Amino acid sequence: MKEQPRQQTAVADRPPRKKIDKDKLLLAVAAPVLAIVAALAITSVIFLTTGDDPFRAFSIMVDYGSKSDSQVVIINKAIPYFLSALAVAIGFRMNLFNIGVDGQYRIAAFFAAVVGGALALPGFLQIAVVMIVAMLVGAVWSGIAGLLKTTRGVSEVISTIMLNSIAAAIIGYFLHEGRLAVRDGNLIHTEPIPEAAHFFSIPTQEDPVNGFIVVAVVVGFLYWYLLGRTRFGFDLRTVGRSEEAARASGVGVKRMVVTSMVLSGVVAGLVGMPTLLGESYNYGTDFPTGIGFTGIAIALLGRNNAVGMALGALLWGFLERTGGRLEFEGYAQEIVGVMQGVIVLCVVIAYELVRRYGLKAQQRKVGEQLAAEARTDKAEVSA
Amino acid sequence: MRRVTKIAAASIASAALAFTATACGESSTESGGQDKGVGLAFDVGGRDDHSFNESAARGVDKAKKELGVDAKMMTAKNNETEADREQRLSQLAEAGYNPVIGVGFNYEKSITKVAKDFPDTTFGVVDAVAKGKNIDSMVFSEHEGSYLAGVAAALKTKTDKVGFIGGTQNALIRKFEAGFIQGVKETKKDVKVVPEYLYPNNDKGFNDPAAAKAKAKGMLDRDIDVIYTAAGQSGAGSVESIAKKKGAWAIGVDSDQYLQPGLAQYKESILTSMMKNVDVAVFDLIKSVEEGKPLTGTNAYLLKDGGVRLAKSGGNIDDIMPQIEEAKEKIISGEIKVDEQPKG
User: Fold this and answer.
1) Where does the record place it (chain B) (predicted)?
2) Which fold has domain A75-317?
3) Which of A357, B144, B175, B336 lies in the 20 to 30 Å Cα band around A245?
4) What crossing angle do the helices spanning B209-221 and B235-243 adopt, rounded to 10°?
């Protein structure tokens, strides 16, 4: 908030820019509003075609989603989604499509769980070790894709998706009684992490909020700072915009590809941690899968912006929580999946439309200015 | 101005977060309800999986007809978390459904947790043992039934090669595999058994018929002519592949798949089904709750109680019934001890 006065004077110093900035703000707000309105309209039509009442459905969702226990669940759901979106966004910012976040976080969580179950260090130290192992494994797994891209030219889309399958197979092999897991009835999981190494949680009057939210916020801040405020971030975005230009200005493109893949993997390694250290305390056959793909949708939704992705993750959690309620109230459970898809599509389309509109408006304005200048020039000449 | 927008967005986000974190407002679990009937939460695949879930649903249908109870059924999605399962169960319990039944061992932890919050409701869980004094844990001896399926497969194969397709490689499905392999080997030790799984550890294995179809096709191409598929809804895909090859047999699972309307066009290829009578267990629980004496603790449904058995519909195993009955007697008497997990 301290920044604000300086910002205002800066604007005041340059009066001609003020109007354009106001338009910019309007456009920035217009895109998400447009997207949400369009998504609501489309889902209403879907509800109507299936013979359901859309307004009743929306009011059920708002009503149920705002209950205090729902809020806690939504936040807890949003934490891994947000981390996953950050991991994906690091790649997106330099035009790398890391589809492998899913495999990266699972294999990272698995080996972190194995290490965590085997050690009995003092709590704080053990949490640190588990997290470091997860980040390292995530980094190695994504680093493979990075190296394949730079040394052999393999598209990261192909390699990461294959690495997902390999990760699943490796986990499947080791997640066996007598290998790295124990059997507990019909569930198979790794040795549980000792209680001393459970992550803290924030108590509320309902279920506690996962303390990992603190880590998520810190990582979100680091993402914003590193990519938006450092030389490294600038280089990274430059490579994303134009490899040629980056190379011409002396950026090592290959090195940047590997580095950003590794960074993406480091963050991906953290995705499974809120569940592992705050909920399940082991990696079992019931460990959640698919968060890596959810992350792609949320990164698109949040336009790779840290705050935007946080809001997107919360929205996703809200939809999932309230979707369960919709099924209970007699709606098809698939409707929430449809809604999520529609929202992502609407956001992508709305931003593109608004961007084009903004571009056109700017062109028109510049054109008018030039025309006006030309007129005054002519007037001066004739005078 | 860009920064102002960002700051504004950040403050809105943190305000929203602060609001949610303080968790003001009422909780959704505060409202109670009356006795509304049975609440059933399915595993992935849903009611019409022709197999596991459908067997549970049959138990509820029977209770509807014979006991006049109402029922609400909900279905699990892929990639669920504990929170989703807890939500499903507590919604049913708080609305007044009693008993509340979770179909599938994935509900073990969530049932244990939710049962504590609703001490006056009886909970049931299929395929798992959950601790709690208001929980009925329904478990089955799938390995014993699968042994008999193995006997049938060994006697019916002409190529001396039989296959097993599991949905997901977990402890429960490996129980099917273990019994099947032992049954085949102890009937004809030269018959080769090929066990394969659709997914190493993803519950998608239970609702991915396309994967099972491809897997079965692959097995048929390797001259395997009897395939036992334990994969919930995916099994339909396997049956479809097998029906295309003359002389090949499918062995179904959980429900009597010969009688499934959805599989009627392939039924001539269904040799038998290893029926796991989840319906009996579910009906028992509902009945006990209706009578005011709810079942709790672990209730095992074994071969000797008819908890698992081979289906005879279609008459395709009539000629080998003597051998199957013999094996059954030996298991019941304890002469044959069936492994619960595959060797090695």
Assistant:
1) Cell membrane
2) ABC transporter involved in vitamin B12 uptake, BtuC (1.10.3470)
3) A357
4) 40
